[in-house]
Amino acid sequence: MIIGLPKEIKNNENRVALTPAGVSELVANGHTVYVQSTAGEGSGFSDEEYQSTGAKILATIEEVYAIGEMIVKVKEPIESEYKLVKENQLLFTYFHFASYKPLTEAMVASKAVCLAYETVEKNGGLPLLVPMSEVAGRMAIQKGANYLEKPLGGRGILLGGVAGVNPAKVLILGGGVVGTEAAKMAAGLGADVTIMDVSLPRLRYLSDVLPANVKTVMSNRYNIRELAKHADLIVGAVLIPGAKAPFLITRDMLKDLKKGCVLVDVAVDQGGCIETCKPTTHENPTYVIDNVVHYCVANMPGAVPYTSTLALTNATLPYVIQLANNGWKDACRADAGLKKGLNVVNGQIVYKSVADTFGMAHLPVEEIL
Question: How far, in Å, CA of 3 to CA of 320, rounded?
Fold first, then answer.
């Protein structure tokens, strides 16, 4: 198979979807890999390193899309890329369709095959979302602690406090991978942490494995509203696979939050769980509403591309090889979890949650396979 690796062009996105080591594996399996020049520079990989493992370098993104039977990316195509996507071309990347209807419509119109990292399943989990969720969860606390500083608009409170001064109160909404990693990080810095989830078994598990300065509380409207009033940092860490996250912090709640409270919505790339959050970039990461700082960068792991690229490709490469060796149809027939990654195929939405989000037509994926 001919595989194309374009350079990511989303604002301040420095990750790359394949490392030179990944290219080497694909070439060893008999495939041809075309890499856009400087695609790996943001993550610390030079064109020469790719060439040394068998890749062919192309100058432009247009050339990569034109030649690739499978395009492997990190983030969804942005508007300038829509016209480059070809009919029957396989795109393997994070899409988060439910957060942006124009992207969904563009990929439907392209008649490409869109296989989304974030909905691939294995043993009931989301293996291609886990590594970036780990990074984003830890970064949420790192960034939150930073923006709690007064010069950046925050309350002027040190996350861990000092002797004789209470630490900051951190509220984490969601006890999945993002929430768990955020809780670990916040607890390690000495914060007073509360993590919420709708699953009692999950809360029991978290209570057992997290440090003593992490409290677990059942997530419901009343509890969220009451705890939010006392929080210095609130992390939105809610995920519903393939669908938009519900709003847990609503617009009317902001008036009750502390002045200089910081909101970090890790779920923003799937629509967000904080009503007043809208996607921002690393270039302009925050804005303030009702004296509350909002940090809503949609590609948080892009700020630490070396770590993120290695963590992501450790997870994605086996699937890339599987798709290249067998073709997407046979690969998805053989692997029910990989089949769950199919979102849009040849002009049809085959992932029900995406279709339902926008009231669009849905075709069961079995009818295509």
Answer: 9
Number of domains, the chain: 2
The pLDDT of residue 190 is 97
DSSP letter at 284 equals S
CATH assignment of the domain containing 79: 3.40.50.720
30: three-class secondary structure by DSSP: coil
Q: Which is the catalytic residue, given 192, 265, 269, 335? A: 269
Rg (the chain; Cα; Å)? 21
Note the pLDDT of residue 319.
Answer: 98
3-state secondary structure at position 353: helix
Q: Are 310 and 74 in contact (CB under 8 A)?
A: no
Active-site residue among 96, 232, 265, 294? 96
pLDDT for 322 equals 98
Confirm whether 265 is a catalytic residue: no
Domain housing 77: 2-120+305-367
356 is known as an active-site residue:
no
Unique residue bearing structure tokens 């670990």: 184
Q: Among 249, 270, 303, give the residue marking a domain's end.
A: 303
Instruction: Collect the ranges in the chain with pLDDT lower than 50.
Output: none
The string of DSSP letters for 122-141 reads BTTB-TTTHHHHHHHHHHHH
pLDDT score recorded for residue 245: 81
Would you say residue 177 lies in a domain? yes
Provide the β-strand partners of residue 36. 58
